[in-house]
Amino acid sequence: MKASEPNPNISRERLYSLDFFRGLTMFLLVAETTEVFSLLVSPELEGTFIRTIGVQFHHIPWDGLRFWDLIQPFFMFIVGVAMPYSLVNRAKAGQSHRQMTGHAVKRSFLLLFLGWALYCMGPGKIVFRFQNVLAQLSVTYLMAFLIMNKPMKFQLIFSVALLALTEMIYRGFPVEGFNHAFVANENFGTWLDIQYGGENLSGHWVSFNAIPTTAHTIWGVLAGQLLISNRDASQKLKILTIAGLIGVVLGYGLSPITPIIKRTATSTFVFVSGGWTVLALALSYWWIDIKQRKRGTLFFAVVGMNSLFIYLFCHIGGADVIEHSVKPFTMALFGWMGELPAEFITRLIVLFLLWYLCHWLFKKRIFIKI
User: Fold this and answer.
1) 47: alpha, beta or left? (left if phi > 0; alpha if psi -120 to 50)
2) Spatial CB neighbours of 253, under 8 Å, sequence gap ≥ 6
3) What is the pLDDT along the chain (370 residues), one digit of tens a residue?
4) What is the pTM of this model?
5) In degrees rounded to 5, what are phi and psi of residue 61?
């Protein structure tokens, strides 16, 4: 049987670590929309431990790696992990491979449409960009799905080939002014965006990132196929840990040759972020599914169970509406503490209400998916 062929004889036990990992990632993304992390780097906190921690919740300006640079890889990897489980369920429901492929293509286009729609809301005009999570995921998800029925070796080689191709294109791009592989706004990725009007020069993000970061989703698929296999839990944990360490060592080891840059998704960034992501899953799997320490995991899991809804809700202004509703009351009650503490409490209350919305949907058994 090939790596991803659904095996109806496998008893699908719920992977609580995946629920937790997805929920925690979405909770952090939701927290970002409340701008609570922005308060942690306020000028008033300069030189404090709080600001040192707060910096880790913001992207690094160019080369290097902070914790927040791992959040998108987390999300794209998690989607990959869930794919083999989804295929097993669809096979049990009697769906053919053709039906599954049709669903994957439809889902990919919906993700692309939603990603583009978010960009169009700001300027009020049609804008084609792939820089946000949904637009990039539409590419990585479909590419990972199309090779799921291939052996593990093929999937690994394909993912590394995408990184090698990206490296060659950036290093060998011949257009003057855009032939500096690792210089902001002077690289192939920026040139490509300019060609179709999708440039976003202020943040140096490029749409071509969808190609190299496909590796994250493919590696997620491989992790999902491992976890759904008949291997015992200790073997699964060992393989995940070794794979994660290889990614981290490769990423940091090659960084003197190719800098770690998230904004253009260099090969070293994909390796090191992928490695940390696999290690994060391994830790969650060990603690929650092997050690059976599930207490408190539902707090985050309820957010992940409606991840698409809460992501879109926050990005179309839902968090802002809640903030405008509660701020008059929180400032009246806590204004005596000073502007920064009162603002921080306000954002935490907004975050709690967004979490409660997810919890309410969970209690009502309402799950919005595509």
Assistant:
1) left
2) none
3) 344 344 433 345 678 999 999 999 999 999 999 999 999 999 899 989 999 999 999 999 999 999 999 999 999 999 999 999 988 888 888 888 889 999 999 999 998 888 777 665 555 555 666 677 888 899 999 999 999 999 999 999 999 999 999 999 999 999 998 999 999 989 999 998 888 765 555 678 888 999 999 999 999 999 999 999 999 999 999 999 999 999 999 999 999 999 999 999 999 999 999 999 999 999 999 999 999 998 889 999 999 999 989 998 988 889 999 999 999 999 999 988 988 999 999 999 999 999 999 999 999 999 888 7
4) 0.91
5) -55, -40
Residue 243: partners with Cβ closer than 8 Å, 6 or more residues away? 219, 223, 275, 278
Please report where in the chains the tokens 């050690």 appear, as a residue.
291
How many of the other CB atoms lie within 10 Å of CB of 370?
A: 12
Closest CA to 83 of 150, 142, 13: 142
Distances (CA, A) of 211 to 108, 144, 272: 14, 11, 17
Q: Token pair of 122, please?
A: 């700001």
Q: Which two tokens stand for residue 243?
A: 């794979």
**Phi, psi (deg, nearest 5) at residue 261:** -130, 115
DSSP labels, 67-103: GGGGHHHHHHHHHHHHHHHHHHHHHHTT--HHHHHHH
